Description:
about 40% helix; homodimer
Amino acid sequence: MAIFTLSHPRGSREAEAFLQxxxxxxxxxxxxxxxxxxxxxxxxxxxxxxxSMEFENQEAYEAYNAHPSHQSFVQERWETEVARFQEIxxxx
Amino acid sequence: MAIFTLSHPRGSREAEAFLQxxxxxxxxxxxxxxxxxxxxxxxxxxxxxxxSMEFENQEAYEAYNAHPSHQSFVQERWETEVARFQEIxxxx
Lengths: 92, 92
């Protein structure tokens, strides 16, 4: 998962577009399971949103990282619209 | 969820005891759903573990926070064995 804050104001049309486009583009990558757009509400955490997804194994995660849809989303949207973020990779 | 790092070394008997006791004590609180002990593996994130759980609604979350088992776990174990942590509260 990644938790992040956008350069757009919360609730703005641009923020909603980013969240919707991210969900549409990233959840369509075949190895991605259970994609969720989340809102971060703890006042003790300085991020506004989360994208959460699951991968079957390390190979699936690497296929996601290398997938053209992920790469272009990162370059065209993430790097231009995300003000700050924290990546968190969890295994059980 | 909370991501955290313990004052004990990774893989130590004390670290394992903390994770197991946390899972046992916190998952037994009736409002807690889908409790998971997780290991954080991203080199870009400076925490080693995660405790993840779900709540039906805000009332359930507040019941958890106020529950004696949670309160005593925080005072007796969390405050003495956790070196640093980040709370993250996500809603969809």
